Amino acid sequence: MIMPNLFGNAHATENPHTGTRSIGAPLVLGQRASLLVSAGVVAHTLWTSAAPAMAYRLYAEEWHLSHTVTTGIFAIYPTVVVMVLIGFGDISDHIGRRATMLVGLSASLAGSLLFAIAPSVLWLFAARALMGVGVGLTTGPSTAAVVEFGTGGPSKRAALITTVAQAAGFAAALLVGGALTQYAPWPTRLSFWVLAALLTLLFAATWFLPRHTGGDAGGRWRPRMPSVPRHARKAFALASVAMMTAYTHGVLVLSLGGQVAHDLVGSPNAFVNGAVLSLFAIVSGAVGIVAKSFRTSVAMVLGALASAIGMGLLALSVGLHDLTIFLLATSIAGAGYSLLFLSAIEVINAAAPTHQRGGILSALYLLAYLSMGTVALVLGVVATARGLRLAVELGAGVIAVLSLATLVLAILVRGPVPRSLSLGCCAASTP
């Protein structure tokens, strides 16, 4: 099939089997392959986020760490992500998605290697900080690249791909990490060597993405806060509350979830506990696929309700020490996360101009990670001082309040998104 050349050569062709373009020069991936690679970078953000989840308890036992320290290791990650998004949130709109993702993947790879060789807890903080740099640089650009390489522009398809990619990365981190932690040698190290190998392959694939993607904002780039244009602010307000609600789930699942699952299941088997937690991600991905036909407003309302119900059941499961209720809570919360994330991305994809999409998405993720980091630090202190049960109940209450705020906004806001997406009446459509 004859394709327009990314570099101005009209004779570039795409191989329909490999999805690559040949122009008699360096290899450049075609649209389909570029979409898959971009989705892989999206998946890496959740895999990297969840990678240490099953190892926190082992670190605590090996180095005699308190809940405050282990949640601190978790919290340094979203804290650094926020710092990177504040200073570099729109950089991909200036230098391109590919270049930004390559730098971010390099930082994530360095963090994985530090985890793999860490001799003390201070190395874990440094490794987690590097992972925060990597995810901060790649989260917005990879989501924007999925939109731009997807057919039909900003649409439900791009939001669905992003949702499923995140779920896949999340589930893989918990299942692979749990299996390697339990059954393989070097339980606190091997999973990070595997992640480092995968990131190396992903870096190599990203190298061959088209070089022009993004970088259309114009003007000289300088470090600055991601900004949202006036016409998109109404949509951004709605999407940001939904995204904050969704991402704050990660505190309970990733930071404290391993210990909660261990206590409820009553098993020291890391794979079993990882499988229990992975139910959140598996349900999230499945619901994302089913919900592709939902109107945006319906998805957001259902997501808020599911999230609030899931948090109520989670608090109940910890109070009653009941595994069945915990599994139900995890499943419903996973559904809520998926619907909230999917609808938030749809709203922003429809409202964001192409030349500002990276910055706007980074601003959205900035608030999500800020919420996650703040809640993680608070719950860590509470868990150490007053016990794990109270910390889980408090976290569940915070997420329930955010869910209700999302529900109210989704009902009250009418038509906040330009270009054919009205939350009050219709589904997302191609502009």
Which descriptors apply to this entry?
431 residues; disordered N terminus; 15 helices; 72% helix; Growth Hormone, Chain: A; three-stranded antiparallel sheet; mainly alpha; disordered C terminus; single chain
Structural write-up:
It is globular, with a radius of gyration of 21 Å. α1 (31-50) runs antiparallel to α6 (121-149), α6 runs antiparallel to α14 (357-386) and α10 (257-265) packs across α11 (270-290). It has helices spanning 31-50, 56-63, 67-88, 92-95, 97-117, 121-149, 156-183, 190-207, 233-255, 257-265, 270-290, 296-320, 323-351, 357-386, 388-412; strands spanning 13-14, 20-22, 28-29. The model is unreliable at 1-24 and 415-431 (pLDDT under 50). 72% of the residues lie in helices and 2% in strands. The two termini are 26 Å apart. With 431 residues, the chain is an all-alpha fold. It has one domain: MFS general substrate transporter like domains (Growth Hormone, Chain: A). The chain has a three-stranded antiparallel sheet.
